[in-house]
Amino acid sequence: MSLEVIYPADRLTLREVGLRDGLQLAKSLPSPEAKRAWLKAEADAGVRHYEVGSFLPAARFPQFADIPQMIEASEALNLHSAGLTLNERGAETAIATAIREMACVVSATEEHSEANMRRSRAAAVELVGKVAALRDAEAPGKLVNAGIAMAFGCSISGNVNPTEVIRLAEACLEAGADIVGLADTVGYAGPTAVGQLCAYMEKLCAGRPFIIHLHDTRGMGIANTAAALDNGARVVDASLGGLGGCPFAPGATGNVVFEDVVYLAESMGFRTGIDLEALKPARAIAEEAMPGEEFHGALHRAGPPKNANWQAMA
Question: Comparing C-alpha atoms, which of 15, 4, 44 is closest to residue 285?
Fold first, then answer.
């Protein structure tokens, strides 16, 4: 399908990344059966877009060894699935599956690029081009997503120049990426920085949607999400219960909480099609399957207000 069908520019899309990003640093891992039950429960609540895993070696990342089964489960539910393709081998594996979106990473700093991918930023952009070319040749229906990690500051090298982030985003689009994202990988940003960089991205993308991927490391996740929405972001990543983190980014902790983002979006006038009450069974499944993990969320603590009556789309 085309980018416009998957990520319409005139509406908000929320992407559940807990089944990928949320499991990267987890101490207790859910079983494959629990992951599929989690997926089904969130789908029943109206969530349609997911990162379902990574195409990484199962020996090093056993939590993603079942990605073929997760893709199959996503297809059975007619969900949009994305998987991380961090290298050429991962892309070649992904292209042969029914995954609908292949996610690449380009770091905003050389130091994080080497730590995360063992390649330079230029080589990472080159990889985006290789993945796009492979897609064009063998699976033209798939999307290619390029996320700019450490876009708001790097825990290895410090400050990041916004001009450099936009340059990398433009290079990824020129290399063949369908959609580009900005990631606050270690939660350094505040609303002003997020708003300004999203405004730059909106100009660069010229009507094409872009993704914002925020972490709540310093409690700024919801404020930053609001700033992103106010400045053109229409695809937002979040994780059930705020799970997540990057193993190659010192200080990285969980994503912005999915349930809280739903409430924020609806309170700002963005229709999500997601039933807040129906998200509770999904969270219960994840919490039972991951007893050693800390789950977060203001909405979970306080509950939705009585006037929160939106429901999942049919």
Answer: 44
Residues above pLDDT 90, as percent of the chain: 81
Question: Measured between alpha carbons, how far is residue 149 from residues 118, 290, 301 in Å?
Answer: 14, 27, 30
pLDDT less than 70: residues of the chain: 245-253, 308-314
Question: Does 154 participate in catalysis according to the annotation?
Answer: no
Residue 108 carries which DSSP code? S
Q: Kindly report the number of other CB atoms within 10 A of residue 196's CB atom.
A: 14
Tokens 């690449």, located at residue: 104
Phi, psi at residue 103, to the nearest 5°? -100, 125
Indicate the pTM of the whole model: 0.94
* Digit-coded pLDDT (tens) for 233-256: 999 999 999 998 665 555 556 899
Which of 154, 172, 198, 246 is flagged as catalytic? Answer: 246
Give the whole-angstrom CA distance, residue 39 versus residue 18: 10
The identity of residue 162, as a single letter, is P
